[in-house]
Queue: 3 jobs
Job 1
Amino acid sequence: MPLDRRIQSLFGIDLPILQAPMAGAQVSAMTIAVSEAGGLGALPGAQLTAETMRAELSLIRQRTAKPINLNFFCHTPPAPDAAREQRWRERLGPYYRELGIDPAAPIPSANRAPFDASFAAIVEEFRPEVVSFHFGLPEAALLTRVKATGAKVISSATTADEARWLEDHGADAIIAQGVEAGGHRGIFLTEDVGNQPGLFALLPQVVDAVDVPVIAAGGIADARGIVAAFALGASAVQIGTAYLFTPEATITPMHREALRQAKDDGTALTNLFTGRPARGLVNRLMREAGPLSELAPAFPTAGGALAPLKAKAEAAGSGDFSSLWSGQAAALGREMGAGDLTRTLWSETLERLRMA
């Protein structure tokens, strides 16, 4: 099967393997390891301050000259909704009392900053080879600043219509994100997640819908998934959950153990932790309050009221109130370094292609 090398040429990478940016689950160590191995390492910016991002990027540039992907969310912050926040706090009240937390205590604000002029300035300063976005694309003026640095722009599409929109608005490549994928859905043209397609239905339709190269994401954790994605027209794959098994992942011990015990039917889409649909391992909160609830405040504010519960439970060794992000293929994960995983995935893919 001849391989489409457009992504390798576009990004200047050796292997058509992208590490998914995973906010809260990794920092620069994973980025460096994957890029040094020949793939495209990513640094997620959604939970980083400008100062922290600069520090991480400085470290990356010191340790690798290979291309990297700098990722941002581009959501619109919601208007304050005190009534909805109060209803959410009342729903969580029994858990507060159970864990000995004052339900009326002030709650921290959720930390997921959208792409803005200050982040555009960081792109201009560090000039990452690829800049990726989740939830569509930023406003035209900001996107123009990003493209002026020479960065290639990519974003996630969960439907063929979203893929067309991204191409029409300047994306250089598109990530086809199947419903199997862990973490936040990239959905942005609708709020309905009930009819989101799986990757193997989505991918060939996106490939047919656009002229730019397409990156497959969702449920890919080994060479079998990579070869299948190539057969359906992908130019590259983006892998997230498999990298959570690496020592470079900064997840909690509870999250790591839950991944080790994961099964194919052990995840669900939930909006409880942030206010937007995201796939994670089912835990107590998801079973009892969701997994999807109209009470959860708009993204990203839902996480504020959960923060005291998460902190108290995690201190006791429990992930009952934590966002245990994971895709549906977690059971295929292997514990090895991020660089070794990247090289192993590609060597096994080449072997399968030779056997085909």
Job 2
Amino acid sequence: MNFQLTEEHLAVQAAAREFAQTELLPGVIERDEHQKFPAEQIKKMGELGFLGMMVDPKYNGGGMDTISYVLAMEEISKVDASASVVMSVNNSLVCWGLEKYGNEEQKQKYLTRLATGEIIGAFCLSEPEAGSDATSQRTTAEDKGDYYLLNGTKNWITNGSTASVYLVIAQTDVAKGHRGINALIVERGMEGFQIGPKENKLGIRGSDTHSLMFTDVKVPKENRIGEDGFGFKFAMSTLAGGRIGIAAQALGIASGAYELAVKYSKERKAFGVEIAKHQAIQFKLADMATNIEAARLLCLQAAHDKDMHQDYGKSGAMAKLFASKVAMDTTIEAVQVHGGYGFVKEYHVERLMRDAKITQIYEGTSEIQKIVISRELLK
């Protein structure tokens, strides 16, 4: 067993940390306050290769491993989870899904531009009545010969108004259940495709989360990913990898809050000494650091499993389940360490606390992760 990062890994980590501190930190509070999408910052992330890290270089990607991706996600998420969720969706769900299951024409047409951040993508699975139960798709893709007629609504879509390419999961044959579901590539601007208003969210307020409406949208057959009926398997396989990205995001939120708490505890004085010298604070920091390190090892284990082409379903679910809980617990304690200052926006930790909650919900709730884990254990 080797717990040392390679020089390449350390370089990626350092580059992501520098970008987060110099490009994302300025203005992050204002973007959160005004729900402003970090368009300029996302463009720079694309130019630096953060939006197609694991894509093969022949499709303009970075050709990096999943460990590099986890390290970069952590550093970006320490500062701005609204930016890191764009990075996560584009890397884990859209680029990975297209590269793994798309045909060569689809890769040349879409993946080559997604990998550089020239355009960004969105993954469209959730619906008003189909969140955790992904088999209950009400969006339909009626087979019309050389095209599908797409009708329905998708909810909670990250990059909803900024994406150019949308991977939409829809039901073609109800009688076949989940085996009658397809995954279609929908382009922004297709007739009948409407974007609903932006959601006013608790956290990750800079990311653009929207509902999408499809009314008789004609999607060419060549835009279907995989064989007829492959859509559900495509969605589940893609989400399994996506969980590693969200676990890394949760890890970053937690470690960012912890670093702020340590810094503040060395500056703030109470009863004549820095509060870091009080055992009550020391014990909080010890618990936070221990849980973060455990979460980090789970994330790296899942990333390693994926890189080694081993089954990462259980390790990815464990990483997301644990890291998201650590994010929630750590940010709450970071606010507590800051006392009254933790409750005001300029100290960042209240924003990290709000951002942490979504990691227990999207790309599979914590309850769904427990189902995934227990199924693997009981096989």
Job 3
Amino acid sequence: MEKDELTIIKEIRDRFSFSDSSVIGIGDDSAVLKFINSALLTTDLMIEDIHFDLSYSSFYHLGFKIVSVNVSDIYAMGGNFKGFLFSLGIPETIEDNDLRELFDGIEDALKHYGGILVGGDLSKSEKVILSGCATGETDNPVLRKGAEAGDWIFITSYLGLSAAGLYALKNFSDDEKKVIKSIRNFENFKAFDSKFAGIDRIGEVLQRHLLPYARQSHQFRHLAKAMMDISDGLLIDLYRLCEENNVGAEIYIDKLPVHPVVTRVSECLSLDPMNLILSGGEDYELLVVSHREDIATSFGLIPVGRIIEDRGIYLIDLLKRRIPARPEGWQHFQV
């Protein structure tokens, strides 16, 4: 890398300048944001070789994703995204073009979600480290706490795509990984032509893993009693929500939608598609709890279970058997 810290910061400030009288951003010790309603604050961290692999993840993907994963938390609280702080640790060997790609991804994500970059930090590190902090606001925060026995459990779309995409990515050739790293948008992912086991639409699962989009909640948030995003897997995230409410849950296996590409990837790699759906992370769909069953029809939500009084998570199979389920999914510190 040829540029020094001050030069990089100036480029960031010039690129992400904005005109908004309610916000004072990059250039002071702290950003100043004026909130009319309850302020929402969330942060997420992405570390090389733990959260991403640079053999198939481009810096553009990383920039877009670090914004998405934070905005997802704002939407999961029923909020509107407002501002973003971004901190970066990078080795001295990083190329200037990689930085441009990273900032391109951040910029495109901010345009997509309608937020602005208001600050951050920069440091030298042995590996690439990205830290994002999203801010938002809401007049009625939707917490994880609020679910009661009898409530319906909904998801916003297919699960397991990101996990399927990750498994597929690890099996691509080096040449195909280079092509994948060059893809910047959903349409180009859809058009990605691979001979990977002859799977049509393989780009859809790659996009879900590398370039995820946070799921908006503004249409139905007023009807949600509890809500959270599915970042670590349906079972473990639902378990966390239930623990907050001292309740349990039943998930109806026949109600879980199965994406055909998840099925094909699972067949090719000898995986269990239901395991990807139940325990695969990083889909960033929303888990919604409501007493209103009809919100499925009104807002396109998918009913997959019910909240129950008994503690624990249970799967209800096609024969109506009640099978205890372990809350498996992504955890940083496994016991």
